[in-house]
Design a protein that fits this description.
Layout lengths: L2 H8 L15 H22 L3 H12 L1 H4 L4 H7 L5 H19 L3 H24 L25 H15 L4 H25 L4 H17 L4 H28 L18 H4 L7 H5 L48
Helix pairs in contact: 2-10, 5-9, 6-7, 6-8, 7-8, 7-10, 7-11, 8-9, 8-10, 9-10
C-alpha cells in the first residue's frame, strides 16, 4: 500500500486554515443570559420543594422501565454516549486528527477548556447541594438535598451536551455547524431522557444538566483569547526545542576515523638470533648475589668423530656408534 500519497494528501495545508473563531455576539449573549435564568429557576424550584419536586416523584414512582421493558437493553448501551470517559476518548481522537491535519492545537485546547469548565461548574454544584438519586431516596415528596449525594445536576446529560456540542462549535462551515448542532442536540436529549427512564436521575436533574452544558458551550468564546495564548506558548516551546537541537547538531565535533598503523616489530641483529637468554645468577641460585662467576678456560667443542680404538680391544657394549661413520675394522684381521 502506497502511504506517501496518503500523507501528501493530508499535508496539503502547510498553514492553519482561516477559520472564523466564534465571538460573543449579541445573540449569543442574550441566549447565555436566558439559559442562566433558567438554570437559577431550576435550582430555586428544587430548593423550595415546589411543583418540580412533585413531578420528580411522580415520574420516579411511575417507573418507566417497567412499562416499556423492551427498550431497556438498548438504552443501557445508548446511555454510554453520556459517560465522560468513552465520549472524551472518541471526540479527542477526531479532534486530534483535525489538529494534525490543520496544523493547529485549537480543537484539542478547546475541548480541554470545555471539559475543565464542566468539571468545575457541575462538580461544585453536585457536591454543594448533595442531592440523593431516586434509588436512594428516603422520604416521599422530599427534595433529598444536603444528604451526601452527587446527582444534581445530571453529569451524563451535561457531558453529552458539551462533548458532542463541541463538534458543532468547531465546525468550519455553516452547513456542517448546522447539521452537527442538530445531531448533538438529539444525542443530548436522548441521553437525558434515558437516565430518567432507567431511574438513575430525577427530571429536575436532567433539566439542570441541559442548562449547565449549554452554558459552557455559550461561554466558550470568552475562552478563545486564553486558548490562542496557550497555543502560541506551546508552539514557541516547540521552536525553542527544535532550535536547540539544530544548534547541538551543528556544533557537534565531526568524528575523525582512526588510521590503522601496522605494528612495527623490533629488528634483531645477527648476534642475537641464536643467543639464548641468560638468567641472572642470583635468580637461579636464589641467594640474590650480584658477584660475577670466575672465568672458565676455553674448551673447544667435542668432535663428533668417534675415538680410535687400538687393535685387539673390544668396544664396550654401552658405546654408541655415530651414524655418520662406518664401524671400525680390527687391524690385522
Amino acid at each position: 500500500m502506497r502511504t506517501d500519497r496518503i500523507f501528501a494528501r493530508l499535508d496539503r495545508e502547510p498553514e492553519p486554515p482561516k477559520i472564523e473563531i466564534p465571538r460573543m455576539s449579541r445573540h449569543r449573549g442574550v441566549l447565555f443570559g436566558a439559559t442562566m435564568v433558567f438554570y437559577l429557576a431550576i435550582v430555586v424550584a428544587v430548593l423550595t420543594s415546589s411543583w418540580l419536586v412533585e413531578l420528580d416523584w411522580k415520574v420516579m414512582l411511575f417507573r418507566p422501565y417497567e412499562h416499556w421493558p423492551q427498550w431497556h437493553a438498548f438504552l443501557d448501551y445508548f446511555v454510554v454516549l453520556g459517560q465522560r470517559g468513552p465520549t472524551a476518548v472518541m471526540v479527542m481522537a477526531w479532534l486530534g486528527w483535525r489538529s494534525w491535519r490543520q496544523h493547529t492545537l485549537r480543537p484539542l485546547l478547546t475541548l480541554g477548556a470545555a471539559l475543565l469548565l464542566l468539571n468545575m461548574t457541575v462538580g461544585s454544584v453536585k457536591l454543594g447541594l448533595g442531592r440523593l438519586g431516586p434509588h436512594y431516596a428516603t422520604q416521599i415528596g422530599s427534595a433529598e438535598l444536603f444528604a451526601g449525594g452527587d446527582i444534581f445536576p445530571s453529569g451524563h446529560t451535561a457531558n453529552a451536551v458539551v462533548t458532542w456540542g463541541i463538534l458543532a462549535y468547531l465546525a468550519t462551515t455553516p452547513r456542517a455547524r448546522r447539521w452537527l448542532s442538530v445531531i448533538s442536540a438529539m444525542v443530548a436529549l436522548g441521553v437525558g431522557a434515558t437516565t430518567v427512564y432507567l431511574g438513575t436521575h430525577w427530571v429536575s436533574d436532567v433539566l439542570l444538566g441541559w442548562a449547565a452544558g449549554l452554558l459552557i458551550l455559550l461561554a466558550l468564546p470568552w475562552m478563545e483569547p486564553l486558548i490562542a495564548r496557550a497555543e502560541a506558548f506551546v508552539f514557541a516551546v516547540r521552536e525553542k526545542v527544535r532550535e536547540r537541537r539544530r544548534t547541538r547538531v551543528a556544533t557537534a565535533p565531526v568524528p575523525v576515523p582512526a588510521r590503522t598503523v601496522p605494528a612495527m616489530l623490533p629488528q634483531r641483529g645477527h648476534d642475537e638470533d641464536g643467543a639464548p637468554e641468560r638468567e641472572p645468577v642470583g635468580a637461579a641460585s636464589g641467594r640474590g648475589s650480584s658477584r660475577p662467576l670466575p672465568a672458565r678456560p676455553y674448551q673447544p667443542a667435542r668432535s663428533e668423530r668417534p675415538p680410535v680404538v687400538p687393535a685387539g680391544t673390544r668396544r664396550p657394549p654401552h658405546t654408541e656408534r655415530s651414524p655418520r661413520t662406518a664401524p671400525a675394522r680390527p687391524l690385522g684381521g
